[in-house]
Design brief:
The protein is of the alpha+beta class and 79 residues long. The protein has helices at 9-17, 39-51, 65-78; strands at 2-6, 23-26, 32-34, 56-62. It starts with a strand and ends with a helix.
Length: 79
């Protein structure tokens, strides 16, 4: 699991949508929601992102280690 603060949602979602496995957002109650190519969920994330002043804190888990590395590499390069 990683915790991130997304400042560039469009680029983040492009990275997530290239992932092979599921990228899951953890909710405060412990639930998990897949966001990989889940466009309705991504639209809702966009609403929250704009509401938060173009910042979206997320806790993420991954099915595939390669997907974890892809998102971490994106995050390190985007910050």
């Amino acid at each position: 699991m990683i915790k991130v603060r997304i400042l560039n949602l469009k680029s983040f979602l492009e990275t997530v949508n290239r992932c092979q496995g599921r990228v899951m957002v953890l909710s405060p109650d412990g639930g998990k929601t897949n966001i990989t190519r889940q466009y309705e969920m991504q639209r809702k994330m966009g609403e929250q992102y704009r509401k938060n002043g173009k910042c979206l804190p997320l806790s993420l888990t991954f099915d595939e280690p390669k997907d974890y590395l892809a998102v971490v590499s994106w995050y390190a390069g985007d910050c």
